């Protein structure tokens, strides 16, 4: 994941690997079978990861998929920090990337806030900001589409 993030110019959260659960259950009593399975899985994975990343890259570049704008993502984060749903997203990728970044830094986003956001309220607050921002974006697109007629 970190290799793909680097290829696509995305920042991984700090200690990203630690967010995944390691399956400690062996599913076998045979240590040799387990070792073979792990080696086989690592080998198979390493053979397809680069191909998969290259395929994803070419698919994205050959399509009309809207890419995120890093400056817009930062503006959205600043608005979220002020507990304001954004009306500056312009595109869903900008909003989704800002939401993901906010989620991964949520404790820091409001730690020095004048709003005294409680840790236990952060998830609900963030959900509301994101959903309201999506509603605003949808409304803006509808108005824009009506003006094009």
Name the features.
149 residues, mainly alpha, flat
Write a compact overview of the structure shown.
This protein has helices at about 1-5, 30-60, 70-80, 90-105, 105-110, 120-145. It is mostly helical and about 150 residues long.
Q: Span between N and C termini? A: 43 Å
Order of helices and strands: HHHHHH
Radius of gyration: 21 Å
Number of strands: 0
Shape: flat
Number of domains: 2
What would your notes on this structure say?
By secondary structure, this protein is an all-alpha fold. The protein has six helices and no strands. Helix 3 (70-81) packs across helix 4 and helix 4 (92-104) packs antiparallel against helix 6. The longest helix is centred in the N-terminal third of the chain and has 31 residues, at 31-61. It starts with a helix and ends with a helix.
């Amino acid at each position: 994941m970190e290799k793909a993030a680097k290829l696509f110019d995305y920042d991984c959260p700090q200690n990203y690997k630690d967010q995944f659960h390691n399956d400690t259950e062996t599913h076998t009593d045979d240590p040799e079978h387990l070792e073979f399975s792990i080696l086989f899985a690592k080998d198979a994975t390493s053979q397809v990861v680069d191909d998969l990343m290259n395929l994803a890259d070419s698919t994205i570049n050959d399509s009309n998929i809207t890419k995120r704008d890093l400056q817009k993502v930062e503006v959205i984060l600043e608005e979220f920090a002020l507990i304001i749903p954004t009306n500056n997203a312009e595109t869903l990728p900008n909003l989704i990337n800002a939401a993901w970044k906010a989620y991964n830094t949520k404790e820091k986003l409001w730690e020095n806030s004048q709003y005294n956001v409680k840790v236990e309220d952060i998830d609900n607050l963030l959900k509301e900001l994101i959903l309201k921002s999506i509603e605003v974006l949808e409304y803006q697109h509808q108005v824009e589409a009506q003006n094009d007629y």
